[in-house]
Amino acid sequence: MADPAVVVTGLGVLCGLGNDVPSFSRGLFEGVNPAASVTVFDASRLPTRFAVEVRGFEVEHRDRKIPFALEAARQALKQAFGGRPLLDARVGLSVGLGLELFSLDDLVAQRAGTLPPPAGDYEAMTRLNTPAHLCVRLLGHAVGATVPPRVFISACAAGTDAIGHAFRALVRGRADVIVAGGTDSMINPLGMAGFCRIGAMSTRNDAPGAASRPFDAAADGFVLGEGAAFLVLEREASARARGAPVLARIAGYGASMDAHSVSDPCPDGRGAAQAMRAALASARLSAADVVAVSAHGTGTPRNDPAESAAIRAVVGPDVPVVATKSLTGHLVSAAGAVETVAVVCCMRAGRLHPTANLDMVAPGCELRHVLHPEPFSGGHVLKNSFGFGGQNACLVIGGGDS
Amino acid sequence: MISILGIGWVGPPGLAQGKPDDVDTPCDPTPHLRDRKSLKLMARQDMLALVAAARAVEDARVDLASERTGVYFAVGGLAFEAAPLDLLAERSAREERFDMARFCEDAYPALHPLFTFKCLPNMPVFHISYNLGIRGPYMVTHPGPGQWFEALQAACDDLEDGVVDHALVGAVADQRNPLGRHHAARCGSAAVPVDASCVLVVGRGEGRARIEALEIEGGPVDLFAPCPASPVGPSLAIAADCSPRTLEWADDGIRARLTLG
Lengths: 402, 261
Known about the structure:
The complex is a heterodimer. Chain A has helices at about 20-30, 65-80, 105-110, 120-125, 130-145, 160-170, 190-195, 235-240, 270-280, 305-315, 325-330, 335-350; strands at about 5-15, 35, 50, 90-95, 150, 175-185, 225-235, 250-255, 290-295, 320, 350, 370, 375, 380-385, 390-400. Chain A is an alpha/beta fold. In chain A, helix 1 packs across helix 12 and helix 2 runs parallel beside helix 5 (about 130-145). The longest helix of chain A has 17 residues, at about 65-80. Chain A is globular and about 65 Å long. The radius of gyration of chain B is 19 Å and the shape is globular. Chains A and B meet through helix 3, helix 4, helix 5, strand 5 and helix 6 of A and helix 2, strand 4, helix 3, helix 4 and helix 5 of B.
């Protein structure tokens, strides 16, 4: 018997490009990166002083990724189920989670002995940093989880891994509905300083909107973003039974490890190509079935040519390639999920969004880059995400109801 | 038939008896390094994970360096060494408060450029894959024993589906660092903080024990229910006794039942 099809029935997104799916989708096709000077803390003395922050959304929690996640999950569930509770369903959560980074304010105050007594249990538990289990429990309650959560900490691949594992869990019948995605915010002193210290971030402070330049010859590093995205995944039979529109399909997932370098991918893209082939194999598709690729595309000098080599090796040089990070920045643990939502938005709109800031293709990055919105008539899209430490993940995404 | 083919672990004296000494675990990863320069990239949990994995591979006596081996790992809470924490605290303070200007001018330049890689929780999997030549799929999760069972389930699924021929299923936790101790204190834990790792090599065929069944259940967890325990517990229990039995584990709202034959 064929594996049951896994479909997307709800989407939610919150990031610098838009605080919900309609505004996010508009942002994709307007093709302008909204990066600007960092406002959530004083970054004026760091080598990189800008990012793609979430705007127009009140963040009351000191760990920004938590309210981002709760809002994105809420949007997705509302679209899928109209806000109704899911009775008699095994509901799961599969989440790519950002680091438990600690607060430098708390650290210094703690060392000085000036940290006041916590106001209550929650503050006591979130002093210095917010432990991962708290975020997972909050999200679990928000989605009504009744089966154990799966949590992914594979850095830049975490969001894609969360969706991929949710797909596999649904195929195996381990849940009926899974809310899958990722959330992250590293726009804080330690997060940005860490990336600056290894020289990974763009320092184009005079032109933030032009700084995220995947595959471009003038790229000088990635631009940090923040936010969250979640998808409601279920088996097609259950979606059809309740008359839910199918927005897209998750058809396959593959993963691999480079075993090459802590920070750089294999230059020949071998590990990335392996993950892409594994995803196609799990979907029982061939390269000829791929009509577009949503690249990891970071604007770093090591990733982009390696990924380009992998894409050429697997699907050839003529398949359209989009790089969503040119518009959203790099959302790290949320990147794969946000970019998967972007793929679905493109499918729903019947066109591929442009890659911004690509003026001259960097050596080794020769691909069929999408520079202007172009028609998309259906078929399967590969979504690539590659994490520090050589962890490579790839989804195969198919179209939904027209 | 899926079996445990090899087991490797590293921890403080007394851990196997359930009474760990309150000492740092002796751990030397250098015999297992592909090149010595990678040592400077390794945090303590990376070293522990690599040593445990190498011991498990040696115990299994199977060549696992390939694309047909996956790594499925649960990592404990964020660990941070004392030295960089001290540096950050001392060189970012002005009048007993965090000062961004001082951080940028004093702490930031003094930070070792590689410290970022010592904080990333997916690094244990990198160091295992890099040093042991393992290039298949992976799953990196945290923070507790429930997630270790999920990793085991993902590994068994991949083995059954033919995605991999072998799986390293492991866990690591470094609790003996300032952040780890802070977390233990806020969780109200009085247990001896332990840095340990345990890895099982899982594959098809006969081995030390068959994995006959794995059931995992869960549900909503109260926000202030007890904190998850170290993810290393279940695999250490198997390392201590992998005779035919059913291992039941409950933590963080997750109930797992693993039957070994």
